[in-house]
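User: My collaborator and I are trying to settle a disagreement about how two of our proteins should look. Neither of us wants to argue from intuition anymore, so we agreed to look at predicted structures for both before our next call. Could you fold the first one, then the second, and keep them clearly separated?

Assistant: That sounds like a sensible way to settle it. I'll keep them separate. The first protein:
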Amino acid sequence: MLNLRTCAAKLRPLTASQTVKTISQHRPAAPRTFQQLRCYSAPVAAEPFLSGTSSNYVEEMYYAWLENPKSVHKSWDIFFRNANAGAAPGTAYQSPPLLTSLSTLSQAQSLVQAQPNVDKLVEDHLAVQSLIRAYQVRGHHIAKLDPLGISCVNFDDAPLTVSPNVGFYGLDESDLDKVFHLPTTTFIGGNESALPLREIIRRLEMAYCQHIGVEFMFINDLEQCQWIRQKFETPGIMQFTNEEKRTLLARLVRSTRFEEFLHRKWSSEKRFGLEGCEVLIPALKTIIDKSSEKGVDYVIMGMPHRGRLNVLANVIRKELEQIFCQFDSKLEAADEGSGDVKYHLGMYHRRINRVTDRNITLSLVANPSHLEAADPVVQGKTKAEQFYCGDTEGKKVMSILLHGDAAFAGQGIVYETFHLSDLPSYTTHGTVHVVVNNQIGFTTDPRMARSSPYPTDVARVVNAPIFHVNADDPEAVVYVCNVAAEWRSTFHKDVVVDLVCYRRNGHNEMDEPMFTQPLMYKQIRKQKPVLQKYAELLISQGVVNQPEYEEEIAKYDKICEEAHARSKDEKILHIKHWLDSPWPGFFTLDGQPRSMTCPSTGLNEEDLTHIGQVASSVPVEDFTIHGGLSRILKTRGEMVKNRTVDWALAEYMAFGSLLKEGIHIRLSGQDVERGTFSHRHHVLHDQNVDKRTCIPMNHLWPNQAPYTVCNSSLSEYGVLGFELGFAMASPNALVLWEAQFGDFHNTAQCIIDQFICPGQAKWVRQNGIVLLLPHGMEGMGPEHSSARPERFLQMCNDDPDVFPKLDDFDVRQLYECNWIVVNCSTPANFFHVLRRQILLPFRKPLIIFTPKSLLRHPEARSSFDDMLPGTHFLRVIPDSGPAAQNPEQVKRVLFCTGKVYYDLTRERKARQMEADVAITRVEQLSPFPFDLLQREAQKYPAAELVWCQEEHKNQGYYDYVKPRLRTTINRAKPVWYAGREPAAAPATGNKKTHLTELQRLLDTAFNLDAFKDLA
């Protein structure tokens, strides 16, 4: 359809006359149908089209008019009559004022011959509307955003055409002083409904083409667009009092002088300073002030390293001496772990906001050099804090994310995180994103770093408004930040503030940027600092005088000097002072440190039975479930009667028992509600009522904790980061992330490598997140077989050559490890390890290699007896058959873990070797159970020791287990290997090859002569 709305939306909007000309090319000789009629220009100055009226609506009016001409407005009646009569395009419509004198149909028909001046008036008004819309859509193209004046932002389309070339819109110089009625889609008139064209253009340029560029017309919500128009188009809306200007100047002083102080004291130290974007500090403080005014009392922030020390000092209000002492290379670390560099550390602080006189808590999440990796972590922590305080709309807790321009455009985690923003179980009800747009990434300029004009274009996918602003105009920055905070508070949607600035130094203070960007840095060397420019402006305005300005500088310099003097008294570095997620009260009990013990993880039979009965029923009336699910629930019920559990029921009982104890449980990942392997079914769906669901787990106990189970987006990096952040908020929650298949954690490797594995060592931050990784060689090909256990084991921090000498071996060893890695072979052990995760007096990440075929394996069942009070997680499950009865006669001990145990027992039975070969299961791989395996090795003095695994030799557990087994036995014997040969891929894709490899593995494991030649 050719209509004025689509014309106005084009890159170069057609004038009214051009529109008429275009339409005339498609004009039929005698229109009789709506398809013919739609080629005509529309009535009411095309306003319905420009304000969103659909062609369907016009079509309905047309057919209604055919039946009854009086059923439509008089203007439409005339339009349809004229068009049907064959009027030329541009003449069918007559302006409403002229209709007031019409009284008869014959008079209306006589208007087929339109007056030329009326036609020109309509065209001119349409042209002005197109002009206004063009400024709203593309005014940011010519806004003065770059402080350096050398912006390389490249738009594929032509630049906005503005005065004096108004002829582009079918207007001429003589029209500049004509008065035009303003449409309802603009606020440039203020209280006036009409303005001269010259004034319209001036006001549009002031609103959209100065130091602020606004991208918002892609938002498909009229109310939101109108809200933004009002904030930027209303004349005189960007006004500041003298007090506000003085506050802004003081904040700029602190931001600038802090960096200058660090440069004077430690000129050769890396600090990734904020020079060139000092306005970031007043920007963040403005967002926090406005949000506090709107009711927010907790702000969680994430940011890369550039400017972090300044944010810590002047936004979070970290003690300056604690920052300065980080520069002393001679100080020893007081806390456990390796620590991290000062510009990666986080902080948590509760203080009074002096602008609103309200308490506010600020948390800056620690972040590695992987610039955007903290984004989902911040969102998860924010979601958790909202959840625990009952903030269902994000009115009390909010997040602010800071980004670099190159990383914002270049790193996919930004896109993944944006797409969590409106999902029910992941939304944080709006995030304020602040981009420190240095216009360069390390040494790479934007032309080589992105394909889009702006680094912020990724935010358009979620209809987030984007406010570009020249960072050398502090008042424009503060105004934009106020609007961004108000937007978030009003609509609870994401918003982006793009601070277009520059980087005065190189990537770090030691780097020479002139090597690669000589012209940019020649311009930067000439650039007057923003503090100096703004101070000169305020002095010229009489807001402050020179002595007042110098006194403000001297006052802050004195604060820094005094803090520096105090920092010299520090003898030890305390990383614990930099915690971003403290857990008050968790590590002590009655004022004393908690004991290193773990109670029994068993449960009484009454609770087991109750949970099992709920798990096998539908606790909601008139709820129709799938027939196949009915059979599954019936099978569960039969298991409960027989006092047995399978994998899914064991998980159900672990979760249900913790809910009774007040522990919130959150299970997240792709397809976790049903379970990838159709085994879980924690969310039931009514087969007759759309979107009606039931979660039986939330119907277990009268005052239980809530259970959250949520299918995630098809993201691993973003969702795992989110769940990690959620687990940071409270130690009294069990947070689990399940991969669809174990190897899918590959795309979340950054979160695992940078946060989960070393988190406590780097930031003294414990975390109890659980990773459920389906694993097992089932002949399904290389992609869905291995969860890559070798990677997790390689990153364990226990020493393979040292036998630990510990009291309370099992718990103390857990306390000293960086994470726990298990591969359970029984449902009962899975039940215990989940409960142990909460009952421990500390928190460690838990990696569980979960089964696939064992989910329904008839032998993978456990009795209630293995889960009763007094029972606990078994780090090692010894052989309990004939071999254990006569250990001196045993010729070989097979150590294994996970599913392969069932293959080995089946083969042992087939070969009738139960008395000759013992099979010992290592359920907890890390920390390694030295003590229990030593007992097992000593139990069979004459036996060969063999590690048996289904994974390839260069994968799986062998490289981790072998040296530790040898340390366990003091290298008294060799430790042989039975398994697949080394390979590049995790598994074969050929079913026959898979079975051949499995049989070779079993032959090797049970051939007692297999290692004689090697020996």
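The second protein, kept apart from the first:
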Amino acid sequence: MDRAQARRSARRRDAELELLVHGVGGTTPGQMLGDPHTVRVTGDDTAAVFRRAEDAGAGKDPRHGPVQEAYVWCNLTSGDSSRALWLLLLPFMVVNLAHWMRPAAAGRHRTARLYGLLVRLAALSLTVLLVAAACEVALDLVAWQCAGVPSCARRHSWPAFLTPPAFTAPGGHATWWSPPGRRLALAALVPTALTVLLWYLSRRTWSAYESHRPFSHDPGPDPGGSALTRPGFWYGRRLVARLRAAHTAAALLTVAVAVAAPAAGFDHRHGGPAALDVLGRLLTSALAAWAAVAVGVVCRRGRTENRLDERLDRHLVRLLPLGALALLVLTVVYAGWARPGWRSTGRLPGDLAFGALMPAQGLLVVALAVVAGCLHRRSPDPRACMRGQGGPAVVLLACALGGVLSGGVAQRVAGWLDGTHAALPGPPVLLTWQASTVPPVLAVLLLLAARLGLGTARLARAERDRIRHEHPGEPEDPGRTRDIARARAMATLTDRAPLVVAVLTATTLLLGAAALAGALATGKTPDAAARRTPDAVQAVAETSQALGSWLVGLGFVLFVTWGRRAYKDASARRTIGILWDVGTFWPRAAHPFAPPCYAERAVPDLTWRMATWTRRTGGRLVLSGHSQGSVLAAAAAWQLPPSVRGRIALLTYGCPLERLYGRWFPAHFGPPALAALHRDVACWGNLYRGTDPIGGPVRVPADGTPEVDHGPLRDPLAYGRTPEHPLPAPVLGHCDYQADPAFARERARLLSRLRPELPGPRPQRRAPR
């Protein structure tokens, strides 16, 4: 090879780039590139692009194949163990996920907006539920009940400054905090601090995610594909700020109502000073009016995706929570006014609040199911989960999870305060009944797990016969056959997720209705209800309530423990992080207090890198994504200008684009969206295995072009010992796709399709002068 050919070869290699994007669990640049010596090309400590050290200079690649770059984004979703506290906001993340599960809305834009409105209202109810549960614990159980009951006041010394003097010791003196209104005012600091913490976390994560501007481009004419092509899809700054203000105001108003309601009720019933009675009525009206304003803000039109919306409703974002805070301060002053003869007896009026909140959530879920059904019938997708009812089912599960956590925590705190004396009235009856639904739900899940286990075992036995026929002439190894058959059977469990969600949703709906009916029956006349209830049934109900409260407490501890482990242990993160990374992939379109969306940083990073590299070099680029990285790769390809999108090749492996995202998010990853992506990019290849529990085919029709799906790949690469594999080849499943020779062949095929190789040298012929 002469010098000219060597220079052309070096330029050609430097103009061929493979941009690798890892999946769930994260990895290191050295592991992705197969070389411990790597350098950072661009980026920061949170997310960056790396190359091998020998590839850092232009034209210095002595190997065959394209230059490889690795985009490492794992620090966007992992970090120190304190980030496991995000898991406590799981109901918020789940309800935000439901926003994106909307069925495709071909020509039904108003119905689609109604769907988003109902999800946002359900999300607002979860914020109110969380803060109401904090008020129940701090205001009702501690400040109102325990400080007002002699046995509880003597049992615990730490609230002694709140209790009347006769409860603590003979001859005791009353403190300034002894009146019930002042106790409630002081206890209101707990839910207020929780609200401020949620507001701070949402605002801080905005600066880390939503503040990153996406790549500005002209999306061109809408071919009816995915909304992920729109310029403003990954820039939700304005909506998150507006929803954050509304949810913060609603949370503060919930605290204000919890403080004002007992004081206003006393002034109205017992003929207190007329000035206080009038002030209470005015304050109640102001709280209701400001709550209506907050609800109106939530009901305003949602996301603006067709353009990059850089406006910010500064007056609204500032005044709405500040006005709610001012009303809360006025309420605290009003409740703290001295009222002779006011004693804390019974429980606060939480039964009415929780009793109204739960049916309201149920009505929202029913309305959402009707809207989702209308959308699905307009554009039916046979692969969509639960016939388009995935979003309503997930909203119901989010509300149920919030209710069970609220009931379980309230039950545990009440048991800790009261011990075995049964002197406190305890939490509202509805929360007690909600905690009692935990054991039946777990029993149903165990039965379902047993059924799925039996089905998997039957499938594994059937796979053994297929494996024997796949390797004719090779000596059979029963243990090897069982391992391969078990891996294939276990991989199919992912496709049974809709059944699990459907059964869990139906169980939750039935048990929720039973809990509401039980609360209504026992809340009005508990003595008469207890006389009408048989002793055996009453014993079962009490046992279920006690067991449910303990299980919720245990689940809370396990939840935090698993979350901490997931952020420390890579293997645990691969197990737990699948659903977590799916949930935090989507922008915060329904709930501003949900964990932040990492894709609002990762997608612009990938888009900027691809657009600037192709513009500078004009070379061939293969965007190579594994697992969740394939979803990021597809989202980044959609954000490229059409001219650049048509010059890149997409290589996906272990890809959940159709198997998970296409089925659960049909409006954005359904068949029309994936078909449009296939048309827009220059070429696309997808690799998958039958033993992979996450990846699968993308099922895009060929339409006269080469097939996208190439597989399933052999796994393991060899059944027995061969000269190429003298040791037993492992069952790879979801990992190490690059170890398969098919990977290099598919990448070379995409590069050749992206642009044909340069023609060989022609015979030398002197041109005429």
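Some points you might bring to the call about the second protein. The chain has a mean pLDDT of 83. Residues 88-213+230-430 form one domain.
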